């Protein structure tokens, strides 16, 4: 994101522009976190995890 701050801008205008950058960055960070978090977690299973891993690996053969 590019923001142009001119010499004629008042301190309030500069602060508004910086605030807009911060808000946009926070919004993007939240979206990134949501996309990443869908790939993390754990599963609840009733069988032995080692047995499940063996089943998955046998599917490749």
What does it look like?
The chain has helices at 11-37, 49-60. It is rod-shaped and about 70 Å long. The relative contact order is 0.08. With 61 residues, the chain is mainly α. The chain has 2 helices and no strands. The chain has one domain (13-60). It starts with 10 loop residues before the first helix and ends with a helix. Helix content is 64%, strand content 0%.
SSE topology sketch:
Blueprint: H1 11-37, H2 49-60
Total strand segments: 0
Average pLDDT confidence is 90
Largest sheet: none
Secondary structure tally, helices: 2
Note poorly predicted spans.
Answer: none
Overall 3D geometry? rod-shaped
How would you sum up this structure in a few lines?
The chain has 61 residues and is mostly helical. The chain contains two helices and no strands.
Q: What are the salient characteristics of this protein?
A:
about 0% strand; single chain; 2 helices
């Amino acid at each position: 994101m590019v923001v142009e701050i001119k010499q004629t801008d008042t301190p309030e205008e500069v602060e508004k522009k910086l605030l807009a950058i911060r808000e946009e960055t926070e919004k993007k960070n939240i979206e990134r976190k949501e996309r990443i978090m869908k790939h993390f977690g754990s599963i609840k299973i009733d069988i032995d995890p080692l047995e499940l891993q063996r089943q998955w690996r046998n599917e490749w053969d």
